[in-house]
Amino acid sequence: MKKIYQILLLVLTLHLALAFPWRLAILGVEAANVRPGLTRVSNDDSFYWETMSLESKMIEVGYTVEYVDGLMAAGAYGRTIYQPHKIIIERALHWNERYLVLAHEAGHALSPAYLRQEPESEVFAEAVANLVCRCGYRENARYLASARGSLSTLFWYYPDIYRVAAFLR
Predict the structure, then answer these.
(1) Is residue 6 part of a domain?
(2) What is the pLDDT of residue 17?
(3) Which of the residues 5, 28, 105, 160 has the least number of beta carbons within 10 Å of its own beta carbon?
(4) pTM
């Protein structure tokens, strides 16, 4: 009987090790240990086609994507408007920055309705952006550091985060 419990414990441990959201755990640890700030990516245009691909996926699910002037003056790089389904992004950004912002806003747009309140919605959207863009944990963690009290969202809703990121990739 003792042998059966040992085998079950080993199977459970292996399952948890393989199914555990390691990338989100690393992001959470980074966010708990860095200073808050905006996410930074390179100011070039190497992600033009990735941005266009992501934009087409959002159009596929019924969202329009518009590039407008003046969002940075209002303190934002992008916004998600749930009704009508629209994402707006600052036109002055380079394509690499647009890609990250669009991935973040797509995370908002595709998040479950019960996760659309601050700061959980920001944690959800930035985690999706981290999984989609793969621009490094530190940069996304800087943005999440201002929502340290809600980092448990990474673990409670990780299946939803991974599902949205998989669709967007």
Answers:
(1) no
(2) 66
(3) 5
(4) 0.86
